[in-house]
């Protein structure tokens, strides 16, 4: 009788342990899933219609209503508010626009988001606003890979294609148009590595506060004011008479030769715009302005491959002026089978041992240098491929 009771106790303890381990494993799985970026590819309006934005990490409120023209709802909650989570949004050749003319389309308040358009067309916007602007962010991180972002006016607002008031925005490519300002940065960081910025009236790119702007390569197309001026770049500087736009340039970049800087007293010269402040430093009479990067990443080469048991030691030439190295290994020359990528984040390191490879398998190896730059990475060309079989 005693043995039977003991066995029951043991079974209960064992069952409890199994449940605990299962719950622990589930927690790990859920945390892993949370960390991964959720990709939302917009193919039809219905792809957005049934999303409960609050539960998906896009922000508070009810489900946002998407109309037949992929238009956000008519209510005051028309803006898609992104407050938390990690997302990739692919517009996939479609247009998302706001229906409430008082608001913008996407508002970032803390999420980590990537915008791209895998089927972008020059004649079709990815995001179109008839209110405050296409994209407005005050927190979080946004990376824009491609797409057309338009801020059009309904006659009462001053729309932008992109406004950064906080957080960090990295623009690698894309087209940004605002009837008032193509893009502006009043706070946070705006790192521009490519793209085109255009305005109909004020600035193609403007800094209206304490935002940090760094440009490595981009094109700026200014509009024409009623006074006949062309403003490619503009900056609000109430305490100094002249503004040095060169501080916007990342190392290795340069303005095109037609760039001019000047001082203009907006308060007295154009009384219609006193709200913008007393002084502006502007690039004037410059219809088109290009910023070009002369940065060239030094390539490296593999010196030696040494085989070990399920591992390879890769020795390579050290390079200066970089952040580190990226090594790729695969079991075919196209680097599609059993591919493994390893990052070495120290420029002075001259070798790396890659473990947990397949036993007795021939691996093809290549290496390139990289540099952290403007919120993204610049890479050199890949080295010549070398091969070695593991033991």
Write the layout of secondary structure elements.
Elements: H1 2-35, E1 38-41, H2 46-49, E2 80-82, E3 86-90, E4 96-97, E5 106-116, E6 127-129, E7 133-144, E8 148-151, E9 160-164, E10 168-171, E11 175-178, E12 181-185, E13 189-192, E14 196-199, E15 203-207, E16 212-215, E17 218-221, E18 233-236, E19 253-255, E20 262-265, H3 266-269, E21 279-282, E22 288-293, E23 302-308, E24 311-316, E25 324-330, E26 340-344, E27 351-354, E28 362-373, E29 376-379, E30 386-389
Parallel strand pairs: 1-3, 2-5, 3-5, 4-6, 5-7, 6-8, 7-9, 7-10, 8-11, 9-12, 10-13, 11-14, 12-15, 13-16, 14-17, 15-18
Antiparallel strand pairs: 17-22, 18-21, 19-22, 20-21, 23-24, 24-27, 25-26, 25-28, 28-29, 28-30
Please explain how this structure is put together:
11% of the residues lie in helices and 39% in strands. It is built from 3 helices and 30 strands. The longest helix is centred in the N-terminal third of the chain and has 34 residues, at 2-35. The protein is elongated. Mean pLDDT is 78; it is low at 14-37, 49-77 and 266-277.
Count of beta strands = 30
Mean pLDDT: 78
| Global outline | elongated
The radius of gyration over CA amounts to 27 Å
Spans where pLDDT lies below 50 across 5 or more residues:
14-37, 49-77, 266-277
Proportion of beta-strand residues? 35-45%
State the helicity in percent bands: 10-25%
From the N-terminal CA to the C-terminal CA, the straight-line distance is 59 Å
Largest sheet: 14 strands, mixed
Question: So how many helices?
Answer: 3
Structural class: mainly beta
């Amino acid at each position: 009788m005693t043995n039977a009771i003991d066995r029951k106790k043991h079974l209960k303890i064992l069952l409890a342990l199994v449940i605990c381990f299962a719950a622990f494993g589930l927690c790990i799985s859920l945390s892993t899933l949370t960390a991964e970026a959720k990709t939302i590819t917009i193919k039809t309006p219905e792809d957005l219609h049934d999303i409960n934005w609050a539960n998906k990490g896009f922000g508070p409120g009810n489900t946002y209503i998407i109309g037949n023209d992929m238009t956000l709802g008519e209510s005051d909650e028309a803006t898609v508010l992104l407050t938390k989570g990690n997302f990739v949004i692919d517009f996939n050749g479609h247009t998302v626009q706001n229906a409430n003319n008082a608001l913008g389309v996407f508002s970032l308040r803390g999420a980590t988001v990537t915008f791209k358009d895998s089927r972008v067309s020059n004649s079709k916007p990815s995001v179109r606003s008839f209110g405050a602007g296409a994209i407005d962010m005050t927190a979080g991180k946004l990376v824009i890979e491609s797409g057309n972002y338009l801020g059009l006016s309904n006659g009462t607002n001053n729309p932008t294609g992109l406004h950064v008031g906080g957080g960090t925005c990295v623009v690698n490519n894309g087209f940004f148009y605002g009837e008032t300002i193509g893009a502006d940065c009043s706070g946070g960081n705006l790192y521009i590595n490519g793209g085109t910025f255009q305005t109909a009236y004020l600035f193609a790119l403007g800094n209206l506060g304490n935002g940090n702007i760094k440009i490595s390569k981009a094109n700026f197309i200014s509009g024409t004011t009623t006074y006949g001026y062309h403003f490619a770049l503009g900056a609000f500087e109430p305490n100094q008479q002249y503004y040095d736009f060169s501080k916007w340039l990342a190392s290795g970049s340069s303005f095109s030769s037609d760039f001019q800087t000047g001082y203009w007293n907006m308060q007295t010269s154009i009384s219609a715009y006193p709200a913008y402040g007393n002084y502006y430093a502007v690039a004037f009479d410059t219809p088109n302005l290009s910023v070009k990067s002369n940065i060239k990443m030094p390539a490296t080469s593999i010196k030696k491959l040494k085989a070990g048991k399920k591992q390879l030691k890769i020795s390579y030439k050290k390079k200066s002026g970089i952040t580190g190295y990226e090594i790729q290994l695969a079991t075919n020359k196209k680097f599609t089978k059993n591919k493994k990528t390893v990052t070495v984040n120290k420029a002075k390191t001259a070798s790396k041992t890659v473990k947990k490879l397949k036993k007795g398998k021939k691996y093809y190896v290549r290496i390139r240098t990289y540099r952290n730059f403007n919120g993204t990475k610049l890479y050199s060309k890949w080295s010549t491929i070398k091969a070695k079989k593991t033991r």
